Amino acid sequence: MNTLDLAPHEFDAHLHFAENDLGPWFGADALVKDADGSRSAEFTHAGEQWVARLSYRDEGGLLPPTGGVTDGGTSVEHETIREFQFKIARHPDEDPVGKQDFTAHMSPRWGGLHAENSDGEVVEIPVPPTLQNDGVDLRIQGSNIEFTRYLDLFQTAARVLGFSARYFQKPEHTSNVMDAEKYARLHRDSSGPVHARDGPIASMAHLLEDDRTGYRKLVQNDNDEHGNNVQGYYHTATLDAERLGEAFPGHQYPKEVKHYYAREAATLDASEALAHPKVGASLQHSLLGREQTVRYENLVALERELDQTVLSVLSDAGLDVSPGDMGRSPYVEMDAYWTPSTSERGPDPIQLDLTRIRQEQESVVVRHLTDGLSPVQWESLSTLVADGGEVSPQDLADANDRHVGSVRRALRSMEELVSRKYGEVGLRSDYVAEMVHDAVQDAREATRTAVETSAKAIEAAERGASDAMAEWVAWCNRHGVDIRNRADALEIDLGEFDGVTWSYNGMPTTVSHRLKTAFEKWEAAGQDPERFRQAVVKFRANGVEGKRRAWKALR
């Protein structure tokens, strides 16, 4: 199907070139010297006007090779090893905003390269294996340009600036990507479901995490730098590859998923693009393992992952990622660098199974609690909930005056709730931890609740009520359901619910489930089903008051 084409934002990559040894570096030195310090040119690329400038870059302290000859055998007679900077930008006549541009910092590389830092200390510069026998590193940093255009634009700019056409033809396989982001800009009155408390960003952060392993970071900031309240100002979920793999099977790269506004958004009119937020996904290179990297040759695969992540988040928030009429879509059309459109180029969004993951974790907790836990299991769970550090089976045993063997047996029987490795124990996920915490707290009230429930059920039975009616009364007390008879209609207060997701009928799934159970028990007790259907249902979900007619939720 046709899906939304996303916009490129930040990009950062190291491109390595060794096919001409240090030739490009010598060429840059000669061109800049001949032009008295800098050289400029204009060119056309894909029907667009661009400008390019080559100049010296502030010295980075690189030192000449020992003996004036590199390990690759190249003679370098320069006493000062300069570095060079290309500035390539869209012509100001075509880019009045001035943010569609990039820099390319060129540095020579050879085996055994050293530099002197500001403290006078001499350090060795890491050099990739493909440049050990001489070459150049080209660091490209830019924004608002299609990722695959950077190399083409640079090659064209280099030629018009005077470089040999044979330079910069094929990046070495060690070339790598440090940062890349894709985004869509949403109307501010449409983006709420993305950053909502039960939206996809928050849900990903809460669910896709082992309690003690991996990386997960959630930021929810609704105030800008001036203290203005901007709902959804900066909401992000940063997850490592393992965590993301739970929601995006086959994805390899860690990412940050974000909903964010420009700094000045609070002061802007809705007619301006920057008054509206972006929803994006960016590579998180810092979360890669020490031996891992994102190869430039895998750029297309990376971009596909970013596209799919953003589209999936938008879709999960209920936004149309295949709009037929852009004029009525939730996407902003006045963005300087993006015009919403659809095509077959982009990947189909993945249906985020965050609800499935949440329900699976709920069922695991409920099953264990329903089946009954031994005292040792309860004690272990209580300790894990209360202790945020590293906990071993021996720690659990010591904390609760138990034999460590008993604790290990208890943990083995709860492997769906807890994870165990390397002598450490943790709850399976942040969401499981929340549910277990609530269960542990509720357990302390269990005896009192059971006594009150039993007493009311007995009282109902003594009044001559049926067993079904006694069960109805007991169920209401056990779940905190309050029934009030009004002159016009029954009022049913289902109580409070946290960490819920919303279903198609406008009520959280857990609320709907409780209401349907209540209706079944009401009917079984011989009460008027139509009176129940016309009842006003009240509830509090994630701290928000809700009210609906029962028949709308029961249909």
Order of strands in the sheet with the most strands? 3-4-5-6-9-2-10-14-13-12-11
Shape descriptor reads elongated
Spans of at least 5 consecutive residues with low confidence: 359-371, 443-465
Total number of strands = 21
Task: Give an account of the 3D structure.
The protein has 555 residues and is an alpha+beta fold. It folds into four domains: 1-8 and 181-349, no CATH class; 20-169, no CATH class; 354-434, Orthogonal Bundle (Arc Repressor Mutant, subunit A); 465-554, no CATH class. It has helices spanning 23-34, 149-161, 192-195, 200-207, 241-247, 299-316, 354-371, 375-386, 393-400, 404-412, 430-462, 467-479, 509-524, 529-533, 550-554, and strands at 3-4, 7-17, 38-45, 48-57, 83-90, 101-109, 114-116, 122-124, 135-143, 176-185, 216-223, 229-239, 255-260, 278-283, 342-343, 418-421, 424-427, 482-485, 490-497, 536-541, 544-549. It has an eleven-stranded antiparallel β-sheet with strand order 3-4-5-6-9-2-10-14-13-12-11. A four-stranded mixed β-sheet has the order 18-19-20-21. Strands 1-15 form a two-stranded antiparallel sheet. Strand 16 (418-421) and strand 17 form a beta hairpin. Residues 359-371 and 443-465 have low confidence and may be disordered.
